[in-house]
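Input record (one chain):
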Amino acid sequence: MSRLVLLTGASGTLGRMLVPRLAAKKYTLRLSDIDPFPDALPRGTEFVPADLTDEQAVRRMVVGTDTIVHLGGIGIERPFRSVFDANILGVTHLFEAARKNRQRIVFASTNHTIGFYERGETIAVTDPMRPDGYYGLSKAYGELLGRMMFDKHGIESVHLRIGSCLPKPTEARHLSTWLSHDDLERLVIAAIEAKITGHVIVWGVSANTRSWWRGDDAAHIGYTPHDDAERFAPLPQEGDSVARRFQGGSLTGHDYTKDICSPFQQC
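The corresponding structure, as predicted from the sequence alone:
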């Protein structure tokens, strides 16, 4: 019998891309999202609608699964309240359900947990997090929640700090942050199939020549990226001066006020 994988956020862009790929690898899939799944379901796949803020619904959808791939929640910068509901309250419900049922969680984190490092800096997953907004902050919470759940309860989790997952890179920043769809598939399958993980963090990035990121747990789970954004170079710079300065790109410039003079600063 094939492994039953719960994929949350299945109706989103990355979920819809991964569903047929995972089905082709003979995983049995249980899909979930607050929105209906817009595509034809692969044979043997079921869809369970659920709101992550509904604790009982989350508990029900987790029962009987072997692994959880968590893509659900808010995937862009939004006001704190909406980010809190889906990405903090919702992910807590999911980890608590996994604690009861002893599933591993493959958690879609983001490069926006470290967005305020400057471009050109090379960083490791052990460097301090520097989230560039409420979205990145919520994903930092998810990583820390996974750490606590492993240390306290032995629940395994693999945290994928996804860069720019697109069919192809479109701007200069992506030459460092691009994650191809094929490499995302390799990454998710490695996270599912790894024999033992504990709590690990892996850069969700392809083998880009200009990558800013190193020092992760990719080898521990057996992830080897194949693609390189360099074949698309050169690409244009995009965004304002703040976006072009920091690794998080446009999200760093969202509601950015640091350079506005206060009564306590000299301009």
